[in-house]
Amino acid sequence: MPSRYQIVFWNLENLFDIEDSPRRSDKLKRAIGKDIQGWTQVLLDRKVNQLASIIRQMKDGSGPDLLGICEVENDYVMNLIVQSLAPLGRNYAIVHHDAPDKRGIDVGFIYDANLFSAEEQFNHFVMRRTATRDLLQVNFRTAKNRLLVVIVNHWPSRSGGAERSAGYRAIAGETLAYFHERILEVKGTETPVLAMGDFNDEPFDSSLVDYALSTRSRQKVVNSRIPRFYNLMWHITGQDLGTHYFDNFPNILDQFLVNRNLVKENAPIRALLDSIQIVRFTEMVSTGGYPNPIRFGGMGKDINENGFSDHFPIAVTIVEQD
Fold first, then answer.
1. What residue ranges define each of the domains in the chain, with the CATH number in brackets?
2. What band does 131 get if pLDDT is binned at 50, 70 and 90?
């Protein structure tokens, strides 16, 4: 019988360790400075519980099978999330890498170890003058012994303006496209590759189209002689919904990209194109004219203990044949 997996990505918005954490380097303490003041274990636990209350509702209350996350400081806060998911009774494990980002925020995975095993892990550096997040690649092996390569991304922000910072995201896109090609060379041309993350650009922006080689044309991806990604978020773009809101304008910054081996007909592992969704449970959404995500705050921002994150999660279902 085919297996169905729900894959989720969520930017958790500044999920930092406590103010006086012994797990934080002196360099990072200087970098984040006063922003971390007042961030107690009580507030951290509250934010973790808020986030976990949403994650537990995913996949009809059983929790996601694989969750990619960004804006986490370390494996300590990731394990707090896993502990808060214990009521689900799942065997969740984590993959985390301490990247050189100047603010100390990383990307990672929480996954059900009964369904996936993490065989290999690679960290692809995005070269720029100031440190930024790596691209974290994990080669997962499914319970049916098939390879699924997943890459979680958190591209350089739009700080200073979208145009001024666009070159940094172009570099990140080029990095992703390069390693996509390398994966197929090393692991075989039939390897399914899924890239997810907060790209800080929209599906139509140059960093994704011209550099990461993603497109809205499924047929182009399937037939192309060079490795391309099919951007699954084109199905949502233009519906007046966003994964993130800036000045009340909806932006699709959080995206799933899949290669040809996840969209071909009769592929052993296949993404269900009509399953794409922005996860927007009622308690996460602001009331009023603009459906912004309700953020928790912190790191210099006002705190709302009934909030969650400034991004909505996104979800997709993939099916694996027997």
1. 3-320 (3.60.10.10)
2. low
